[in-house]
Specification:
Elements lengths: L1 H8 L5 H27 L2 H30 L5 H33 L2 H12 L4 H19 L4
Helix pairs in contact: 1-4, 2-3, 2-4, 3-4, 3-6, 4-5
């Protein structure tokens, strides 16, 4: 159903919205690749790449929602296509959250200790893992720079 809406309204989305969706598509493609590799190969290193990217997706979605509201106020888009745009963002956020869960589940499965995977997640979110912090900053810089180049 959502894809029907996208097909119907894609040409009506503002050029800015389309460019933003292209950037978020790129990061989502990267997350999905790491998720598939981690799940199918029980690859902890691939699984560890998912969470920093997922956090960047959350940051991007906040920015894209704000940009959307600015475009709406300025009359650069309308309510109907704007709703579709927001639906897409909500679905992207859900997909990246599911990928994050798969990554953590993969880590738990390989380590055979769900508590250790949970404690790993808590360590990340407290900012206590330097590798995660570096990856997050690197990916954030990469993808937010791409978003910033798109004029709202």
């Amino acid at each position: 159903m959502l894809m029907d809406k996208v097909s119907t309204y894609l040409v009506q989305l503002s050029p800015y919205a389309i460019k933003e969706l292209e950037v978020i598509r790129d990061i989502l493609t990267e997350i999905l690749a790491y998720t598939q590799k981690s799940f199918h190969s029980r690859d902890i290193e691939a699984a560890k790449h998912i969470e920093p990217l997922e956090q960047v997706v959350d940051d991007m979605i906040d920015i894209m929602r704000s940009n959307h509201l600015s475009r709406l106020r300025e009359g650069k888009c309308d309510i109907t296509t704007g709703t579709t745009f927001l639906d897409i963002l909500s679905n992207v956020e859900l997909i990246s959250d599911v990928c994050s869960n798969i990554g953590f589940a993969t880590i738990a499965r390989v380590l055979e200790d769900a508590n250790e995977a949970h404690s790993y997640a808590a360590t990340l979110h407290k900012g206590e893992d330097s590798w995660y912090n570096e990856q997050y900053e690197k990916e954030r810089e990469t993808y937010l720079t791409k978003l910033q180049k798109i004029n709202i």
